[in-house]
Amino acid sequence: MKKFTYSVLAVFLAIFLSCEKDKIAMEEYSVAIPIVQSKADFRASISIDSPKAIKQSGKIYVYENYIFVNDNGKGVHILDNSNFSPVKLKFLNIPGNTDIAIKDDLLYANSKMDLVIFDISDLNNFKLKDRVEEVFEDELLRPTENVQEYDFSNFDWDNNIVIGYTIETREREVPTYITNEQPQPNFSEFDGSGTGGSMARFNISDNFLYVVGEYNLSVFDISNPTTPTITSQEQVGWQIETIFNNEGYLYLGSATGLYIYDIENPAKPVYASDIQHIYGCDPVVVKDDLAYVTIRGGNLCGQEFSQLEIIDISDKKNPQSLQIYEMESPYGLGVKDDRLFVCDGEFGLKIYDTSNSPELEMTDHFKELNAYDVIPMENALIMIGDNVLSQYSYKGGAITLINTYSLD
């Protein structure tokens, strides 16, 4: 009788397993495979080249009569802006570069994970002076959209870097009875001296260079300018995007809020406070006791709406939100005297009277240009967007266009 029971059980088990096997289905999924380069070849590829067309304009930086324009991930275009008539001079080919800062004719730049220093005292003979290796997060090692998995099985983390990805479609077996949901992306492999704009990640104050990465704040002592030493590096938040320095404090803009750090000891910033906001891309500028923050939604930045937020920072340990204004697609911003300049992407440059801030009054709107980043200088306003450099005059209190210059 027991023998008969075991036999029947075996038959049912065989039928059950057969049914389970029949429920296995095949599905396609996308895999990102890293394109690699050796660190030695990457570091040897820095060069000082003749002027060339820009590929993707990024941040701007002003030093003396020169404008430096970042070509995102590729390097820096240098323009002579004497008499507000820009002329291309050189291109610094710095692979993996996103930002710069300049002091005493020395240009500091990131090259992916390294800090590089150039002597720009002779515009006809730029020189790479030094390199500090492995001090930054690898900012370009980011997830690719519409990818479910990453294949790093053959990647040499010690000696190679990722310079891009190829996308491959693969097939795998999926038990259809487990879930009807589509597979979700698996990112488990990923555990700006001169004047920079509000989009800057580099900032120089006295003898210290401050650099924010996606998670870290790094501090370099540049009192010996050609051989900087790192004095502090700590995790300060999540998705840190920008840095602004004002009257002894650093203001870090992140995807989730504004962080304030005290630099009474400039070598080691100390956390003072933070204020959280809706999720979005977030540059910040400060004047007196007010911080102005643009928060951009959409794409990878966050929710679908965007705004300008004004924050009371009179008490650095207890910042308070005062007013929020709806925006279209804001990027960089700048503040000078009683004017706030907001780059609202394809919706142009918006200018506000801040004399009664937090109550703002729009006084002008230049709709004809794409606006990405802006620097209010003493005699002119410099703005960039969509590979076009624009300059405006403050004469007579009116904001008037001086010229536009295509970087293509």
Write up this protein.
The protein is mainly beta. Helix content is 7%, strand content 50%. The protein has a domain at 27-191. It is built from two helices and 33 strands. The chain is globular and about 65 Å long.
How would you characterize the largest beta sheet?
Answer: 6 strands, antiparallel
User: Which structural category fits the helices and strands?
Assistant: mainly beta
Helix percentage range: under 10%
Order the strands across the largest sheet as they lie in space: 2-6-5-4-3-13
Provide the residue-averaged pLDDT.
84
Strand content: over 45%
Please report the total strand number as a whole number.
33
Shape: globular
Tally of individual helices: 2
* Uncertain regions spanning at least 5 consecutive residues: 1-13, 175-192
Radius of gyration: 26 Å
- Give the N-to-C terminal Cα separation: 88 Å
In brief:
The chain is mostly beta strands.
Write the layout of secondary structure elements.
Blueprint: H1 2-22, E1 24-38, H2 39-44, E2 47-49, E3 57-63, E4 66-71, E5 75-80, E6 87-93, E7 100-103, E8 106-111, E9 114-119, E10 127-132, E11 149-150, E12 160-175, E13 195-196, E14 202-205, E15 208-212, E16 216-221, E17 229-235, E18 240-246, E19 249-254, E20 257-262, E21 270-276, E22 284-287, E23 290-295, E24 306-312, E25 320-327, E26 333-336, E27 339-343, E28 349-353, E29 361-366, E30 373-376, E31 380-385, E32 388-393, E33 400-406
Parallel strand pairs: 1-11
Antiparallel strand pairs: 1-12, 2-6, 3-4, 3-13, 4-5, 5-6, 7-8, 8-9, 9-10, 14-15, 15-16, 16-17, 18-19, 19-20, 20-21, 22-23, 23-24, 24-25, 26-27, 27-28, 28-29, 30-31, 31-32, 32-33
